[in-house]
Description:
- The chain is globular.
- It has helices spanning 112-122, 148-151, 171-183; strands at residues 12-18, 27-29, 34-35, 38-39, 45-48, 67-71, 74-78, 85-88, 94-100, 103-109, 134-138, 144-145, 157-158, 168-170, 198-201.
- The chain starts with 11 loop residues before the first strand and ends in a 10-residue tail after the last strand.
- The strands form five sheets. The chain has a four-stranded mixed beta sheet with strand order 2-1-15-14.
- By secondary structure, the chain is an alpha+beta fold.
- The protein is built from three helices and 15 strands.
Amino acid sequence: MNQTASSDLNATIEELWVYPVKSCAGVRLPEAELSGTGLTYDRAWMVVDEQGDFVSQRELPRMALIQPAFRMGQLQLKAPGMLALHLALDAAEKPARVRVWDDEVEAYDMGDVAAQWFTDFLAPDAPAGLQRLRLARFDPAVMRRCDPAWTGERESHTQFADGFGLLVASQASLDELNQRLRAAGHAPVDMRRFRPNIVLGGLTAHDEDRC
């Protein structure tokens, strides 16, 4: 709990999610290991352009169709019309330097096979300048600090996530949002739209903001 948190919250963890490749689909897990940067393997890989700048669904919406899974010590990636790509969880080919938002960090390039796989699937619908893509792996020796404007004096680190090591949401908050959407004549949205790592139950709407 933080200093403004209430001690009467009694939440349950309903879902655990990791998003191994930044901006691709997530993997729901029955259990997960918590490290100093968040859940293990969350945003550990990232697609970059030829300059090393990260790309996301904002530019390449087909990234949402790439489905990761963990299989026998490997990260397996599937996409429509593509043979599966298998990457060893501890694999890395050569050092690289990549940029995620305003942070430029040391990373590892995952090699030509992975680069070609992402290029073949994503480049046909990519805007100009994104015709050749590569896959990078976060260097675990790097300490990418979360923005102190939000964390204050508490030092926190993450890998390729936008800002923080964990994103927490509650089912009650989603239910409340969907009630408002239906009332306004809009279709409800799925929890996956918000890409949380931890989904809490047993709360009222927005109680997670007090945790």
